[in-house]
């Protein structure tokens, strides 16, 4: 990584990170599959960049009959990675029994997954099982975009005197198809950082992207927002991985990505400018995405109207309806300081696209007939 950050200077309240001279990187496979697989990956990871070795031992899955992890035997493999390579080790826990077994096998760091964070009862059970621990505990954002639920999970852990806490931003589920597996919705994570400045924020580009291609861009964006580290899934043979094969990368590719990432020192006079600019640009990107999605939804409704008009033999263009829409939009635009000229051009473009959608539906039978 270029211009490596000194986390002790940047995060005075994030003491468990102070031992690292570079931003935190957690690497390793989505799932432990065999002892050999674990040791092969650990041997290929560059410890100049990767400080923590992760592996899923228990894998909460959306559907039954999916691979749900090797279970407790994988903890033995994780301990062997620690003994042979000196890595700090990490795994996910989803209940009190997982906590008990992980602690018995001397796992250093534990994380709580998105499906667990969404359930306060589960979080409470895990928090009580970890009471007074000095282990590092990381909390992934809940599956759904709920900032209070995420903060509440951290507060439940704090209430059990767990001091070494961090958050993992892995994106949020959405039924809409986007380029992401889990929409990052960066603003939620940034709001978390503002409300809980003493909690380190780690980005999980693997789960945000759901594919290998986007990992660098998401990781770079995270550092533009001054995140404290990354969790990136790495496998010695990604295409043959037992879970989440599409989003895992080789250790070699991981090192290429880490070397290319650009960082800024906390005392850089331009750091605030670039951080603020990235935040504002992100808000624009999310607003633009919302606009396009909304227009897409509008066209879908328009298509349904076209079907209804066709069924009842009604003309596509309805002047009185158009006039009412136009007048309402002009008034709405005034509230936001938008000129009548701009609203007129925007609305006419949308209306024209809507008419084209409806016309194509009205003419569909004619096109199909010889």
Detailed description of the structure:
With 370 residues, the chain is an alpha/beta fold. The chain has 2 domains: 7-267, Alpha-Beta Barrel (TIM Barrel); 275-368, Chorismate mutase (Chorismate Mutase Domain, subunit A). Helices cover 49% and strands 9% of the residues. It contains 15 helices and 8 strands. The chain has helices spanning 7-10, 35-44, 73-85, 96-104, 114-117, 120-129, 147-158, 186-195, 205-209, 215-224, 251-260, 271-311, 319-335, 340-362, 364-368, and strands at 24-28, 52-54, 88-92, 109-112, 136-140, 165-169, 201-203, 229-233. Strands 1-2-3-4-5-6-7-8 form an 8-stranded parallel barrel, surrounded by 5 helices. Helix 4 (96-104) packs parallel to helix 6 (120-129) and helix 6 packs parallel to helix 7 (147-158). The longest helix is centred in the last third of the chain and has 41 residues, at 271-311. It is elongated, with a radius of gyration of 25 Å. The N and C termini lie far apart (64 Å). Residues 3-12 have low confidence and may be disordered.
Number of domains: 2
What is the CATH architecture assignment of the largest domain?
Answer: Alpha-Beta Barrel
Computed Rg:
25 Å
Strand content: 5-15%
Write the layout of secondary structure elements.
Layout lengths: L6 H4 L13 E5 L6 H10 L7 E3 L18 H13 L2 E5 L3 H9 L4 E4 L1 H4 L2 H10 L6 E5 L6 H12 L6 E5 L16 H10 L5 E3 L1 H5 L5 H10 L4 E5 L17 H10 L10 H41 L7 H17 L4 H23 L1 H5 L2
Parallel strand pairs: 1-2, 1-8, 2-3, 3-4, 4-5, 5-6, 6-7, 7-8
Helix pairs in contact: 2-3, 4-6, 6-7, 12-14, 13-14
